[in-house]
Amino acid sequence: MRIKFALGALAVLMAAGTVQAQDFKPRIVRFGYGLVDDSNQGRAVRLFAKEVEKATGGKMRVRAIGNASLGSDTQMQQALIGGAQEMMVGSTATLVGIAPQMALWDTPFLINNTREADALLDGPVGDKVRATLEPKGIVGLVYWENGFRNLTNNKHPVTKLEDMNGIKLRVMQNNVFLDSFKALGANAVPLPFSELFTALETKAVDGQENPFNTVVSSKFYEVQKYLTITNHVYSPWMVSVSKKWWDGLSKDEQKVLLDAAKTARDFERKDTRDEATKALADLKAKGMQVNELSAAEAGRMRDKLTQVNATVASNVGLDLWKQTQDELVKIRAAK
Ligand code: KDG
Questions:
Q1: pLDDT digits (tens, 9 = 90+) for 137-167
Q2: Which CATH superfamily is 24-326 part of?
Q3: Distance from residue 5's CA to the centre of ligand 1 (Å)
Q4: How far is the CA of 18 from the centre of ligand 1 (A)?
Q5: Potential cystine with 106: which of 176, 180, 189, 206 (Cβ 3.0-4.6 Å)?
Q6: DSSP states of 158-173
Q7: Does residue 175 contact residue 276 with C-beta atoms inside 8 Å?
Q8: Average pLDDT rounded to a whole number, residues 330-335
Q9: Which helix (H) or strand (E) holds 152?
């Protein structure tokens, strides 16, 4: 009864213009990401923000905060777990320390194309891996696309396996990437993304590996001469929410965030793929010397990396590994 009276009184006050609607403080959502604002990652976060504000009539306001201004992927993950930050998007590879099954997505040559990627990530295997985050304090909403990773360096073109020897290669802070590039003969150096450009510029490292989109948006072409097309792994991003904050939201608010993340996912995947088709020509025009690894050399690379696959299988669990292989057979048969 008292609530009804209070609401009635509030309606009268608002009608009288005494209490303005905008006096209600909107929920602010700090959404951090590591790439520059003018990147596929930044454009998708801003679309997400628009979708949330539209769906809530401004009651939820998303602040898109790029350039790793809120910290590296691993620092933002800890901020989500502690409840000091509401949302982020970042590499699944940097989540392995929190949820070991995320290493599945680091498996070299696991996924052959974007059709397989979407079907696997948005299907039962992707859901199962995503769900392993929640007990650790992070709610994984959806996967966005980082893309197929390729190699850049400043020493020489990589046309055969032996050319990897001695290249000081920055990798993400993740054991599968470390093991993979050590197996290929490189001197693998784990670094946060936020330190990568400077490490390349100061020649602290000779090379790195990322999708074409990132080589363009982060201007790595300014400090890298050679680009070798390897497509050695398909890299997803995870859109994550602090569970501490998520649990305090209504079911309607949670649905708004999930729906907006899915809308932004579908936009981001198309935006990333469109940008990637243009990026290669763009990088050649900017002076990068581009070569594609031959099928034979890519085969030699795969053979070298089979041991890494065995390690991933035991780390993520043989049941999940087998389910993934079975799911890929189904996806490939359903052409
Ligand atoms: O915050 C940067 C992350 O989004 C990361 O995925 C970028 O692929 C990346 C890398 O190489 O660190």
A1: 999 999 999 999 999 999 999 999 999 999 9
A2: Bacterial extracellular solute-binding protein, family 7 (3.40.190.170)
A3: 53
A4: 49
A5: 176
A6: --SGGGGTT-EEEE-S
A7: no
A8: 92
A9: strand 150-153
Index of the ligand 1 atom closest to the CA of residue 91? 6
Pocket test for ligand 1, best of 31, 33, 35, 224 (most atoms within 8 A of CB): 35
Q: Which atom of ligand 1 is nearest to the CA of 235?
A: 8
DSSP H helical ranges for 142-250: 175-183, 196-201, 212-217, 243-246
Atom of ligand 1 nearest to the CA of 72: 1
Please name the residue whose Cα sits nearest to atom 1 of ligand 1.
34
Write down the pLDDT at residue 18.
46
The reported pTM is 0.91
Q: What is the pLDDT of residue 281?
A: 93
Ligand 1: distance of its center to the CA of 82 in Å?
22
CB–CB of 149/91 below 8 Å? no
Contact 315, 100 (CB under 8 A): yes
In the reported structure, the alpha carbon of residue 15 is separated from the centroid of ligand 1 by a whole-number distance in angstroms of 50
What is the pLDDT at residue 19?
44
**Taking CA 123 as the corner, what is the angle to CA 34 and CA 301, rounded to the nearest 5 degrees?**
65
> Looking at residues 289-295, what average pLDDT do you find?
94
Q: Of the residues 102, 146, 216, which should be mutated to test ligand 1's pocket, given the most ligand atoms within 8 Å of the CB? A: 146
Determine the average pLDDT of the residues in 295-320. Answer: 91
- How is residue 38 annotated by DSSP? S
Report d(CA 279, CA 123) in Å as an integer.
29
Ligand 1 centroid, distance to 171 Cα (angstroms):
10
Instruction: State the pLDDT confidence band at 17, using cuts at 50, 70 and 90.
Output: very low
Q: Which residues line ligand 1 (CB under 6 A)?
A: 34-35, 73, 90-91, 146, 172, 193, 210, 235, 237
